[in-house]
Design a protein that fits this description.
Layout lengths: L9 E5 L4 E4 L18 E6 L3 E5 L10 E3 L3 E6 L4 E6 L6 E8 L1
Antiparallel strand pairs: 1-8, 2-7, 3-6, 3-8, 4-5, 4-7
């Protein structure tokens, strides 16, 4: 799937400790308002299997979205907070987030 980045890509280490990313775009509102606009979609790429949660909850191996190793997925957002964690038993790797149009 082709997607147009509307913000910078961030890269995090995937470990057994839960991480959190607050996503926004590099696009801003009217010229008098330099606040970044909220992201509506995100592209997530992983090198190791990971679990992600959209919202204020901590990512959980038993109930949240599993992303297999070496996969890129696109999601529509209704929040700006994404938590992530390495799947239990997997080898450490990386996860990247890119706000897209």
């Amino acid at each position: 799937m082709l997607s147009k980045p509307v913000g910078g890509t961030v890269l995090y280490n995937l470990t057994a400790s839960t991480g959190t990313y607050n996503i926004s775009t590099s696009l801003s509102g009217p010229s008098w308002d330099t606040t970044a606009l909220p992201a509506r979609k995100v592209r997530v790429a992983v090198t190791s299997p990971a679990v992600i949660n959209f919202g204020p909850n901590v990512a959980d191996n038993n109930s949240d979205i599993l992303i297999p190793a070496n996969t890129v997925e696109h999601f529509s957002l209704n929040t700006s907070t994404i938590s992530y964690v390495l799947l239990s038993g997997a080898t450490a790797g990386y996860i990247s987030f890119t706000p897209v149009a």
